[in-house]
Write a structure and sequence with these properties.
Length: 180
């Protein structure tokens, strides 16, 4: 298990609970602009968010995925989520953020708190993140968190908001630092 909660200068990152479903739905999960480049569709109701959280809890219990909700402390505002999915020696990293929170450094601050946690798992040798080729704002967040562009993966991931075809994705990586 990874630690929770985590504190950064402006944020509290904590484990999501079923009680977060309403805020998750209202603040970001229903927004098609937020979910445009995500591997899950915009939620149609708080019930969708609750189902998502129940599935996440099961993946966490199996130690496949670990997630935190992002809370901006000054407003006590749940404005996004961030997580790590374990796949053998690779940890996949991802996040989403409420549109109102874009451009404020919140995603970067959260990412910088989470990225080093991947190395607490001895089996993890590489951290990866995938970004749609048109989602350049997200590439800057990953770079600020220490990941570097590795390659273009053609027809890699289905993004529901963009249809049923697999989309071209940019792969960003970070190798386990020496001595860790």
């Amino acid at each position: 298990m990874f630690p929770s909660p985590l504190e950064t200068p402006r944020l509290t990152l904590r484990r999501p609970t079923l009680g977060d479903a309403e805020a998750m739905y209202a603040n970001y999960a229903r927004n098609p602009r937020v979910t445009r480049y995500l591997c899950w569709p915009a939620h149609r109701s708080a019930s969708d968010a609750a189902s998502f959280l129940r599935e996440l809890e099961q993946r966490t219990e199996r130690e496949e995925e670990f997630a935190w909700v992002i809370v901006l402390r000054e407003r006590n505002w749940l404005c996004g989520s961030i997580g790590i999915r374990l796949k053998g020696a690779v940890a996949e990293f991802g996040y989403c953020l409420a549109e109102e929170a874009w451009g404020q450094g919140i995603a970067t601050e959260a990412a910088r708190a989470i990225v080093p946690l991947a190395w607490s798992r001895p089996e993890v040798t590489r951290l990866e993140a995938f970004v749609h080729v048109q989602h350049m704002r997200s590439t800057r967040v990953l770079e600020k968190a220490g990941l570097r562009y590795a390659r273009l993966d053609r027809a890699h991931t289905v993004l529901p908001a963009l249809g049923r075809q697999k989309q071209d994705m940019l792969r960003y990586e970070l190798a386990r630092p020496r001595g860790i």
